[in-house]
Specification:
single chain; about 180 residues; mainly alpha
Length: about 180
């Protein structure tokens, strides 16, 4: 067991170093070129560590949900928690047309957090009432409904002529988990 963990950590650190230094172009971390230094410290390191911590967080959240509901199929995608977060972000973006202050980075993150927590509380209440066996089916139904409502909000945005790319860019980033806007500062 310890050898598997050690091997996994070694592979992880090796791939992280390869990602930071070699991909897409070679950057010598010991060379003092201003451009290479800025690319390494401003773009590559923050993106690599953000991806690493996002992966760690997703795996921990999946493990916690599996232990909480005592079901090995439980996870943030199966239970509808992630789709509840994306629905809250879509509703926020529609509302941000009327209240532009809401479309800041913290507003989008807060909306996603609130949407995920509301869905998690709903799933917890269903779990207490009907038992842990029904939560997977309930989560799949929630995910389908939230996806439907997210698509409806996009359609509503197009009908109201809100479909400018910059208006929907945060929502698309939320769904696709893009890391291109991650910076050190």
């Amino acid at each position: 067991m310890k050898s598997r963990i050690l091997l996994s950590l070694t592979i992880l650190i090796t791939l992280l170093i390869i990602n930071i230094i070699l991909i897409p172009n070679w950057i010598n971390p010991f060379q003092h070129s201003d451009i290479d230094h800025q690319i390494l410290w401003t773009y590559r390191l923050p993106k690599a560590f953000t991806a690493l911590f996002a992966g760690i967080s997703l795996s921990i959240s999946g493990f916690i949900l599996q232990q909480l509901f005592r079901n090995y199929l439980a996870g943030p995608y199966i239970l509808g928690v992630s789709s509840g977060a994306s629905l809250a972000v879509a509703v926020l973006i529609i509302g941000a047309h009327y209240f532009p202050i809401l479309q800041s980075g913290i507003g989008i993150s807060l909306a996603g957090f609130i949407g995920a927590m509301l869905v998690l509380l709903l799933v917890l209440s269903v779990s207490r009432k009907f038992g842990t066996g029904a939560i997977i089916l309930f989560g799949v139904i929630l995910r389908a409904n939230h996806r439907c409502f997210s698509e409806f909000t996009q359609l509503f945005g197009i009908a109201q002529r809100f479909n400018h790319f910059t208006r929907w860019q945060p929502f698309l980033m939320w769904i696709q988990i893009e890391l291109y806007r991650v910076h050190l500062c």
